[in-house]
Amino acid sequence: MPKPMAPLVVEGLARATDLVKLWEAADPEAALAGVAGDVGAIAVGGHVRADGAFLERFPKLQLVANFGVGYDAIDAAWAEAHGVVVTNTPGVLDEEVADTALGLVLATVRQLPAAERHLRAGKWIDGAFPLSHTLRGRTMGILGLGRIGKAVAKRAEAFGLTVIYHGRRQQQDVSYRYCPTLVGLAEACDILVVITPGGAETRNLVDAEVLKALGPTGILINVARGSVVDEDALVEALRSKTILGAGLDVFAEEPKVPPALLDLDHVVLLPHVGSASHHTRDAMGQLVVDNILCWQADRPPLTPVAETPWQGRYKAMAGTP
């Protein structure tokens, strides 16, 4: 384990495996060099960038267990080419992240954080908070209708919103209208929820053209990865009132947040708390532990990512696929 993880993960793995807590070493680099040749599995969170250069330091590596559903910090292509299985934690955080997305929608459209600031500053005594915008009559466009996207859509329908979506392909088992292009989705909706994976393929996918298509009554909600949205274009769109507002749980260079966003009142900002409840983080942590226990017992992993499916066995300990 290169960096600290949740106590449930650390304690669960320490009880069942020969766990190397690399961050506790006086000289982590020297400690890594001393154990790298014997490491068969790595447990990582989003704070560890596991690229090919890092992973190839472990000749007997068989499994990388990621804490989180997004795994863009792991070079899954390298792992697949070298017979290494990568796992993540899907399913257990869908509902929590969907709740956060709807919370951001409500907070942004109704300007709830600004209303609370108005009260706390003692301004209510001098006058009512200005009227806000509404959810009534709005259409939600979802970029990425996966498990979390579907959970968001279900909640949106309960609020009376029309739901449409865009993704790499049309899904035959849903009734929502499919938009073949992202610009087309943005033109057809006025709440755009981003819940697509991060990585090179989606970097700056939501750009100035998409924001212009979203329009002056449009709201952008991002609970995916900060890299999916062009932050410079977003700041300009907010300043120029090209769009109405934004609700953001993620940023391009977390935990750094662009000062320009902090200065804007029509933006709701959260510190990447989409799945951050005790209940959900414990479930995610247990899935990390369980995937490594499966590896230890030479059993199929519970949640391998698409790029590294279970092939019936882990790669040979000799270090060859």
From TrEMBL:
List GO molecular-function terms, semicolon-separated.
glyoxylate reductase (NADPH) activity; hydroxypyruvate reductase [NAD(P)H] activity; NAD binding
**InterPro entries the UniProt entry points to:** D-isomer_2-hydroxyacid_DH, D-isomer_2_OHA_DH_cat_dom, D-isomer_DH_NAD-bd, NAD(P)-bd_dom_sf
Which terms in the GO cellular component ontology are assigned? Answer: cytosol
Pfam families the UniProt entry points to: 2-Hacid_dh, 2-Hacid_dh_C
Start and end residues of each D-isomer specific 2-hydroxyacid dehydrogenase NAD-binding domain: 102-274
Q: What residue stretches are annotated with the D-isomer specific 2-hydroxyacid dehydrogenase catalytic domain?
A: 19-305
Gene3D superfamilies hit by this protein: NAD(P)-binding Rossmann-like Domain
Q: Taxonomically, which superkingdom?
A: Bacteria
Q: Which UniProt keywords apply?
A: NAD, NADP, Oxidoreductase
Describe the family membership recorded for this protein in Swiss-Prot or TrEMBL.
Belongs to the D-isomer specific 2-hydroxyacid dehydrogenase family.
Put simply, this protein is called 2-hydroxyacid dehydrogenase
Give the species this sequence originates from. Lichenibacterium ramalinae
